[in-house]
C-alpha cells in the first residue's frame, strides 16, 4: 500500500470511529415535524421525494396542497400508481394573485385545513405533507396556533412536512428539522421558462 | 366587497400583472444543469422528487448513485414500479469512511462515471441524476473537466441533476440552477436517530 493510501485509510478509520460514535449517541425515534422553506427550489420537490421513500416501505402518505391547483400534475400522475398508499388532496385554487379574491382564498384554506386536521389524527398514516401551508399562514388565511396544537397531538410516529417560503418563527421553533433552500443561481434569471418535469 | 377585500384584489391584480409579464419574458427552453448542494437535508430527496415529476409525464429517468450503496432503498423500491421509465445504477460502495480504501473508491467512482457517460449520450433520457457525484469530485476521485465536457455535449433537451455537499466552483459556474440546502435546525442535534422513510 502506498504512503498516500495508508494515510487515507488512517484518516477514514478515524472519521468512521467518530461517525459510529455519533450514530450510537442518537437513540430517539419520533415522528418529525419537518419544514422546507426559503426562496430556492426544492421545497415541495424534496417533500415528494420523502413521500416516494416512505411508500417504498409500504407506508401510507397523505398530501394536502394548500395553494397549488393546476400545478404538481407530474407527481400527482406518478403517485396515482400508488393509490393503495397515497392520497392526494388538492384544495388550493391557485396562487392568491391568480384568484384575486381574499374571501375565496380564506375559504379554500379553511377547507384544506379541515382535511389536513382529519389526516393528522389518522394513526394509519406515516407521513402527512402540508404543501405550501406556509403561504396560507403568511397571508394570515389560517391561524397558526390550532395548527401547531393539532400537529403536537398527532399519533406519535407520524412525520409531518410543511413547505413554502417565509415559514413563521413559531413554526420553526416547533419543528424538529428545518431546511432553508436558497437560490445560489436560478435559470429564470437567464430567461429560461418553466418547463415540464422541472417546474410542473 | 369590503375595503380590505378591494385593497387585496388591487394588490393581487398588480402582482399578477407583474408575474404574467415575467413569465412572458421567459422564452428559452433548454435542458438544465441543476446542482443541489449545501449541508442541509433534501439534496438527493429533491432530485428524486424531480424524477417522480418527470415519470409522471411518461418520460425516462436514469439515476447513478456515486457513493451511497445500502442507502436510498426506499426510493429504489418505490421507483421499481416504474421500471419501464426508470433505471437505477447503484455504483458506490458506501461512504468513503466505510470502505477506507482509496483505490477501491476511485475504481468505483470510475465505473460509476463510465455508466453516467453512456446515459448522458442517450437522447431517449429526459433526466439524468448523478447522485452524490460532488463527493467523488471533492475527494478528487474523478476529474471535473471531462465530466463538464460530457454534460455540455449531451442531447439538447436532457436535464441533469448533480447532488452532494461542497459543489466545486467550476460546476456551479457551468450550472443553470444551483440550490443550497442549509440546515436551520436538525433533529440529529437533538439525539434523534436516522429513521426509515426519512433518512433511508
UniProtKB/TrEMBL annotation, chains A, B:
The keyword Iron does not apply. Its main location: cytoplasm. GO terms for cellular component: cytoplasm. Pathway: Cofactor biosynthesis; adenosylcobalamin biosynthesis; adenosylcobalamin from cob(II)yrinate a,c-diamide: step 2/7. It is found in: Cytoplasm. Residues 2-23 form the Cob(I)alamin adenosyltransferase N-terminal domain. It holds the Pfam family CobA_CobO_BtuR. One of its GO terms (biological process) is cobalamin biosynthetic process. It catalyses: 2 cob(II)yrinate a,c diamide + reduced [electron-transfer flavoprotein] + 2 ATP = 2 adenosylcob(III)yrinate a,c-diamide + 2 triphosphate + oxidized [electron-transfer flavoprotein] + 3 H(+); 2 cob(II)alamin + reduced [electron-transfer flavoprotein] + 2 ATP = 2 adenosylcob(III)alamin + 2 triphosphate + oxidized [electron-transfer flavoprotein] + 3 H(+). It is an enzyme of class 2 (transferase). InterPro entries: CblAdoTrfase_CobA, Co_AT_N_dom, P-loop_NTPase. This is Corrinoid adenosyltransferase. It comes from Acidiphilium rubrum.
Amino acid at each position: 500500500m502506498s504512503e498516500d493510501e495508508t494515510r487515507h485509510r488512517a484518516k477514514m478509520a478515524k472519521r468512521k470511529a467518530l461517525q459510529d460514535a455519533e450514530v450510537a449517541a442518537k437513540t430517539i425515534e419520533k415522528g418529525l415535524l419537518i419544514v422546507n422553506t426559503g426562496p430556492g427550489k426544492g421545497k415541495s420537490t424534496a417533500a415528494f421525494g420523502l413521500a416516494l421513500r416512505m411508500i417504498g416501505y409500504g407506508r401510507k402518505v397523505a398530501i394536502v396542497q394548500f395553494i397549488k391547483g393546476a400545478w404538481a400534475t407530474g407527481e400527482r400522475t406518478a403517485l396515482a400508481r400508488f393509490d393503495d398508499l397515497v392520497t392526494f388532496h388538492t384544495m388550493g385554487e391557485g396562487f392568491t394573485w391568480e384568484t384575486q379574491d381574499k374571501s375565496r382564498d380564506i375559504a379554500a384554506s379553511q377547507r384544506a385545513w379541515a382535511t389536513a386536521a382529519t389526516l393528522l389524527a389518522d394513526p394509519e398514516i406515516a407521513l402527512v405533507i402540508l404543501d405550501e401551508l406556509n403561504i396560507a399562514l403568511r397571508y394570515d388565511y389560517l391561524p397558526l396556533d390550532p395548527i401547531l396544537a393539532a400537529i403536537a397531538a398527532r399519533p406519535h410516529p407520524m412525520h409531518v412536512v410543511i413547505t413554502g417560503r417565509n415559514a413563521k418563527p413559531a413554526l420553526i421553533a416547533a419543528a424538529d428539522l428545518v431546511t432553508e433552500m436558497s437560490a445560489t443561481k436560478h435559470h429564470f434569471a437567464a430567461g429560461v421558462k418553466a418547463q415540464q418535469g422541472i417546474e410542473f
